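Subject: Sanity check before I submit

Could someone independently write out the structure tokens for this chain? I want to compare against mine line by line before I put it in a report. The sequence has 75 residues.
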Amino acid sequence: MEVETILKKWGNSFGVIIPRTEIKKHNFKVNQKVIVSLDKKETTKVKDLFGMFADLKSDTQNILKTIDKELDIGR
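---
Independent answer below. Compare away.
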């Protein structure tokens, strides 16, 4: 089971909430031992994206047109 959830602070510890639908689907019970694997979800910040365009010698309007064309290809 893989679930995206938010890490919460509980007293001096941290915890996660597993949705009830997943608990029922996998038949987990109260006090049952489980193994939990955690990974950070990497997020992309808009300011990081602009660094990708640093070498372009085009104005913003042309960059936006190029992006629009590339996005329309798959449609």
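---
OP: Matches mine. For the report I'm noting this point. The radius of gyration is 22 Å.
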